[in-house]
Amino acid sequence: MKDAVPPAVQRALRARFPEALDSARRLLRQPSVSATGEGVAECAEMVRQMMAEIGCKTRMWKKGGHPLVIGELDVGAPVTLIEYEMYDVQPVGDLDAWKVPPFAAEVRTVPGVGRAVVARGSTNSKGALANHLFTWKTIRDVDEMPVNLKILAEGEEEISSANFIEYIRTHRRELRAQGAIANDYSEDLRGVPTVYLGVKGCLYLTIWSRGNRTAGGPMEGEIHSSDAVWIASPVWRLLQALDTLVDEDQRPVIDGIWDEVRRPAKAEVAMVRRLAKKFDPKTWLREGKVAKFKYDLPKVDLLLRYLYEPTVNICGIHSGYVDHGGTKTILPHEAYAKVDIRLVKDMTVGGTLRKLRAHFAKRGFGDLRIDVHGPYGPARTDPTSWIARAAIETVEAHGKVPEVWPSSGGTMPAFAFDEYLHLPWVATGLGHGAHAHAPNEYASIDGMRRFIAAEATLVYTAAKRGKAVAK
Amino acid sequence: MKDAVPPAVQRALRARFPEALDSARRLLRQPSVSATGEGVAECAEMVRQMMAEIGCKTRMWKKGGHPLVIGELDVGAPVTLIEYEMYDVQPVGDLDAWKVPPFAAEVRTVPGVGRAVVARGSTNSKGALANHLFTWKTIRDVDEMPVNLKILAEGEEEISSANFIEYIRTHRRELRAQGAIANDYSEDLRGVPTVYLGVKGCLYLTIWSRGNRTAGGPMEGEIHSSDAVWIASPVWRLLQALDTLVDEDQRPVIDGIWDEVRRPAKAEVAMVRRLAKKFDPKTWLREGKVAKFKYDLPKVDLLLRYLYEPTVNICGIHSGYVDHGGTKTILPHEAYAKVDIRLVKDMTVGGTLRKLRAHFAKRGFGDLRIDVHGPYGPARTDPTSWIARAAIETVEAHGKVPEVWPSSGGTMPAFAFDEYLHLPWVATGLGHGAHAHAPNEYASIDGMRRFIAAEATLVYTAAKRGKAVAK
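ok -> structure tokens follow
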């Protein structure tokens, strides 16, 4: 397939690559740890300036938290793209495990990969952010930009995306566009890239059981466990309530929760069949140090469950005395569990929460308190949508056959494009990196070259394909 | 009722009371915190010397842990008593909450109580230990001791009594006697003493659920919670297993557990009826800050459940991520609960554990690991036994009407007398103290006088009443 990018732009991107590498390393040298706040404000300003150099109108937006950096470039093109970026990073973690200082952005040879920038954020995701900005700047220098851009670079991806979600929710008019893109280095070690057309939603809850006048139990502090014979325990109450949420296979049985679960469409099942050919369950289990799957099913059915079923999982649970070596005999006055419910299409955050509360109320557990943290809805892009086609075509133009996933098993705030803007979105990208969240995070330098070239292709391809949907 | 104590002994006990108070304060000034080991060895030696001054053959015995101090006095009397004592204390806790240094044994006026020794261990139980040793020493000085004594003073009561239980289990021949006594200050603020004829047993367990080849789940560390859709969670497994242990009222439903629960005898029900007259549920609930009991039952039935029913209680539970403010999405590879099962007659530690394991195995939870800590059996003394009668008669000889409890709701290692020695035992004592385990623990000085006088009465009464059972 012929590349849609004008030869002059292709040449400039290749010739100026040292600038691209420099700008990525410069951005990586600026810490931006959202969990601690280290360097976040400085990094936001650096990103704003890089956007301004492309010719964007820029601004910062925040409602508490770290700023969302917004860059808008209106060239009067029929097609407008929303470009999702993140400039925050995870904490560096165990410094002794790093072979280089995590914010030095040194170039090292990674066995099996080649030369790579080793730094916190290199692959997740400041490398791709810098590469994107470089690509757009170069196109602007050499050619007319064929699309309008609305660039949203958030500083809270690692801590729940509150500003980003709130901005999308409250700025629908300003965010009119034809599609949204959240690209990153997606090639694995074999060089196979992925195209993601969906993510699951995630409703993260703390469910509390405390002694109270309705249910009984100690209300202000632990009491002696000998009283368990005639005083109700909030711990048992929590366990009994939680136990009603799943069946023997630990699948959700919250009243009505399956009513809104959308069955995969034919095109999606076909995608899963193609995926199943590459998927190796044994390797997957070995990497996770897991002995077996819950279900003894063929690969396609296993993947269909993985991608199209909701879950209720316990991330943590705590009550009372949990030290080892002692025998403290108490009846604790409170207990809580941290529960995440993964949502699939067409489940919603609000609807699921209402069902959970009704489920508890019906069984006499209406007194349990539920705190909601960072709720994300699910998101799905139709594989026949113009942006999905543009993304696949782009990857193929660079000689690669992508794994097309109808959904990731994980969660990111893409639901905001889906739920609030009704826009198709896609997550893909050439290039390779690894060790996100871990020590010695890296991004391949050759991969950056491929990423940049493919992103230019995507811009021109989107300009062409997106016209059909632009009114 | 006439006091059985010779007038010369009574006079000496009164005249020498300043010595008794001195020796109690001296013992209290010696720290003996079993949890940390602070002063324990020095205190054990001090107790050994005090026993030697009575004329006891003394020795220390330990198999790990803190020594059991043993004093034997054989005067060739027909009746032998085992005297249970403890010389260890709880940690002092929050020092700022103490009005006096916890090991200064200062004398202060306690409102509503009068002059009292304020010190860690004063009421639990070094005050009574010193008072006991003083009583026996004085009897020896003035009269013939009318009984033989086997005094066992343990240094691990606050940390599970391992040495004590092991000694009893392995020295049955040396411990031949007619009865055992575990007396302490038992009067409440109204001056009403108690006689306890039983305790519940306690089987304290840590129940572990971990990923494994049979049940699935991650085996070496947490994995991403998105995998909950196809990987089994050890946390759910623990919750589902625990949930089978109790019914809606949180009463035990472990297979066969009620088969060995002995119904209260007529004499016991009669005791409970008498107790119920004094028992005020509202005061009890107010003190524990509890809104209500599990059952809406008349006082007698409530007390019968309290005293004669086993329980399965969760003292603590833990798994995974339990911090607040974050949203870490993991599927933990292990979870555990700290469970105490209170045993009533005729349940045994071994039998209950076997039933629990069989219950789990039958339901497919045989892979859960169960660690057993400090298991205590239940203990019950027949209210018509000679030692129960001697104890009640003693209290009455001092002008008091005791509350006679067929059992405490709590646990102490008295089961060792019952299970290994087949000896009737009793726990009572005049005198008053409070704030055991808490700051500003105290023992009333007037109460010490009453305790000493009554203990002398018990020795002479036991000599008389015990003869009938001594062969």
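Chain B touches chain A through 77 residues (CB under 8 Å).
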